[in-house]
Amino acid sequence: MPSALEAMGERWSFMILRAAFNGVRHFEDFLDQLGIARNILSNRLGRLVESGILMREHCADDRRRIEYRLTEKGNDLLPAMLALRQWGEKWSLGVPCNPVLCDARDGLPIAPITIRAHDGRVVGPGELVWRDTVDLGMADRALSAAPEPAAPERISA
């Protein structure tokens, strides 16, 4: 958990990741959308690249421009970002939830992020225990092999 908080727990890093999930790719576009100082943006983008969450590459249509893209590691932060947003929406009194993240297929708002057991059951805090991976044997391999749903291309965490 400390490494996850280090990656996205700082305000600007969280905002940069949210923008990246919304399709922002270029330095100037991050500046425009976030209202962040150049030096801070440069620093945070560098950290996110260094940690493997974003990758820095030349644009296909203009090799002089650089773009920042989410890596697989970065895309795996989506559920955590959505859970934090949903928590904030639930506990921030009087703050409107806008925009609302919706399913691209039917246009309806997504369901709250939940904790699910290996068989799909929703479980609550009273139904969870921490176990050492050595004690799990084959169970941890089955969990890591479970297919993940495809993420929508444009989202707002």
Report a brief summary of the structure:
This protein has 157 residues and is mainly alpha-helical. 43% of the residues lie in helices and 6% in strands.
SSE inventory with pairings:
Layout: H1 2-8, H2 11-21, H3 27-34, H4 38-50, E1 54-58, E2 66-70, H5 72-75, H6 78-91, H7 133-136, H8 139-145
Antiparallel strand pairs: 1-2
Give an account of the 3D structure.
It is a single chain. This protein has about 160 residues and is mainly alpha-helical. It folds into 2 domains: about 1-75, Orthogonal Bundle (Arc Repressor Mutant, subunit A), CATH 1.10.10.10; about 80-145, no CATH class. It is built from 8 helices and 2 strands. The protein has helices spanning about 1-10, 10-20, 25-35, 40-50, 70-75, 80-90, 135, 140-145; strands spanning about 55-60, 65-70. It has a two-stranded antiparallel sheet. The protein is globular and about 50 Å long. Mean pLDDT is about 85; it is low at about 150-155.
